[in-house]
Design the sequence.
């Protein structure tokens, strides 16, 4: 969850303010340099992975966001584009565009609903499942290529730590 603050949107997990975001606090607080910041390193890594993944996934006509939508539909079943936008942290317009492209490629299709309202549920097609498997192999290859110099133990530790930070894993017990 996130909450509004003067510094923008902050995760609710214990963050009450961001140092250096007010004029008085921007004079320097002895904080460590960006290069040692986990957040900064995650951001830099994200850029590297995103460029490599989008380039490689272009061979099958999709990008990482679209694979994320397919992944979500496979994992959780039919969802509306608005639900997908919320879960994936993209704008409704971005989700609608990605869904439109996935529909054109035959990865997803609308599912008839008997409910009220205009929401259309989307479901993954057989072709979408097969192409998602292809995308997963591409992602695994890029992941292996970019982390080739990292030991298996360090990779497992980094993965566990990032899951805790992302809120999808449990902290290790002492």
Sequence:
């Amino acid at each position: 969850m996130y909450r509004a603050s003067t510094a923008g949107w902050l995760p609710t997990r214990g963050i009450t303010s961001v140092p250096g975001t007010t004029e008085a606090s921007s004079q320097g607080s002895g904080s460590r340099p960006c290069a040692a910041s986990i957040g900064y390193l995650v951001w830099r890594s994200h850029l590297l992975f995103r460029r490599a993944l989008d380039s490689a996934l272009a061979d099958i006509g999709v990008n990482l966001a679209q694979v994320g939508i397919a992944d979500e539909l496979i994992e959780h079943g039919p969802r509306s584009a608005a639900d997908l936008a919320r879960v994936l942290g993209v704008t409704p317009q971005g989700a609608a565009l990605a869904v439109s492209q996935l529909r054109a490629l035959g990865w997803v299709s609308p599912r008839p609903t008997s409910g009220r309202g205009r929401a259309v549920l989307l479901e993954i097609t057989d072709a979408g499942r097969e192409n998602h498997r292809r995308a997963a192999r591409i992602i695994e290859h890029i992941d292996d290529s970019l982390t080739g110099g990292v030991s298996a133990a360090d990779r497992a530790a980094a993965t566990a730590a990032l899951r805790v930070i992302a809120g999808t894993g449990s902290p290790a017990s002492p």
Observations:
- The longest strand covers residues 2-5.
